[in-house]
DNA sequence: ACCTGACATCGACGGTCGTCGATGTCCTAC
DNA sequence: GTAGGACATCGACGACCGTCGATGTCAGGT
């Protein structure tokens, strides 16, 4: 509706000097706020890593829906401190829950948090 | 159901030396391959940035579904080369299309590519 | 032809990230 | 209590990323 806004008007090149004075005059102002964007980006950064994506999908593919570090370490082929670091990032992002059972640490998905990630893109 | 699988068996510490020999014996092997995970992570890295999220949502919020750099630069409050860099990242990820119309460069969403991102999390 | 304006490209700088070995903590078994 | 195994934490190092000013390119207007 009202498509005549598509062509830029290019008015007021110097007038009203105090404001931003967007060159095309449309004044894009919709979309996410800075706070919303940073919150979503923080969640996405936790997931934008091939190792962490493999950890999440491996835990999901488990029969019991959980896995411990000793299972995940040989899967990704990295050192144990590195795997522990990635799991910590996922826990701090709310995507995994850690449960210490005996000497082992078991990790389980948080489906609601996964839905939050998918909801960013509708 | 069947909770005795929770306790690891810890067998074959040295037997079958060629294979991975997971300590807990479950042998997590489902989930994404390394190539699949890297492809998804590359796409997610393009989106895991607050500035780029704001650029995408601002373009989506436009009436015409497109915007030029001169509209987006004052929105995010960064320098023009920085905004141009972020837009290039989004174009190279397939999330945006660039069309040079007159002296301006117009950017439009690629909805199918957005769906690819959402599909990573089902 | 010249200038101006819109945008891209080019180093360069500082900060963050992924990875590792070394070390610490906690639990269990003997 | 002592030993060993599972996991977390701690620097440290190299690589990548976001940001900028400076510069280049191209289209339009005078």
Describe the overall structure.
Chain A has 122 residues and is an alpha+beta fold. Chain A has one domain: Orthogonal Bundle (Arc Repressor Mutant, subunit A), CATH 1.10.10. Helices cover 45% and strands 12% of the residues of chain A. In chain A, strands 1-3-2 form a 3-stranded antiparallel β-sheet. The radius of gyration of chain A is 23 Å and the shape is elongated. The first copy, chain A, starts with 33 loop residues before the first helix and ends with a helix. The structure holds a DNA duplex (30 and 30 nucleotides).
**Integer tally of domains of chain A:** 1
Count of helical regions of chain A: 5
Oligomeric state of the chains in view: homodimer
Most extensive interface: A-B, 57 and 55 residues
CATH superfamily of chain A: Winged helix-like DNA-binding domain superfamily/Winged helix DNA-binding domain
- Which structural category do the helix and sheet elements of chain A fall into? alpha+beta
Tell me the radius of gyration of chain A.
23 Å
Low-confidence stretches of chain A: 1-22
Any idea of the CATH class of chain A? Mainly Alpha
Shape descriptor of chain A: elongated
Average pLDDT number of chain A: 82
Strand proportion of chain A, as a percent range, falls in 5-15%
Strand order of the largest sheet of chain A: 1-3-2
Supply the key terms:
alpha+beta; 3 strands; 12% strand; DNA-binding; Arc Repressor Mutant, subunit A; elongated; homodimer; 122 residues; disordered N terminus; 3-stranded antiparallel β-sheet
Overview in brief:
2 copies of one chain form a homodimer. By secondary structure, chain A is of the alpha+beta class.
């Amino acid at each position: 509706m009202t498509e005549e806004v598509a062509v830029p008007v290019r008015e007021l090149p110097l007038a009203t000097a105090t404001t931003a004075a967007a060159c095309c005059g449309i004044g894009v102002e919709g979309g996410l706020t800075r706070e919303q964007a940073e919150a979503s980006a923080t969640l996405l950064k936790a997931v934008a890593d091939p190792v962490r994506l493999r950890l999440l999908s491996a835990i999901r593919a488990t029969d019991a829906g959980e896995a411990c570090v000793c299972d995940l370490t040989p899967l990704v082929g990295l050192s144990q401190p590195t795997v522990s670091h990635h799991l910590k990032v996922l826990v701090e992002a709310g995507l995994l829950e850690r449960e210490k059972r005996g000497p082992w640490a078991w990790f389980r998905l948080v489906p609601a948090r996964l839905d939050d990630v998918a909801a960013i893109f509708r």
